[in-house]
Amino acid sequence: MTISMYEASVPVFSASLKALSNVLNIAEQNALDRKIDPQVFLTSRLAPDMYALTRQVQIATDHAKGAPSRLAGREVPKYEDNEASFADLQARIARTVDHLATFSAADMDGSDDRMIELKLGQREFSMAGMQYLLHLAMPNFYFHVTTAYDILRHNGVPLSKAIFMGSR
Question: How much is the average pLDDT of 131-157?
Fold first, then answer.
């Protein structure tokens, strides 16, 4: 049995973004319960040279909307990166999940061999679709989702692996 490029991407991104949304809901409620300014969480980072929580969520959604778009030969939606609250991050996640819902398996048929060219920072990449998905887009997506979770956990938000995985 084989797995399609669609199955390996769109449902995976959607499920993880929904779990991330739940993580953010728990964090926002935790800030209220502990009487912590939500900006403390939104601007927190694990190390001085790492991005803050807000940027981690932005980058995760960038990979989630970008990968299927590139694989399907569509233009990648552009977001402003101006989120400043939990509500803003939730809206960004919802917009990304809605975008993912516009794809079908047929949109991505044959994309495993389609050449994907993109620039990330100062680096330019050109690779076959499957290589792009499995070795660049998915690892980056999971890195930023995991880092967002870790920032909140480091700040005392009561999260668990089950919550991260979306099973709670």
Answer: 98
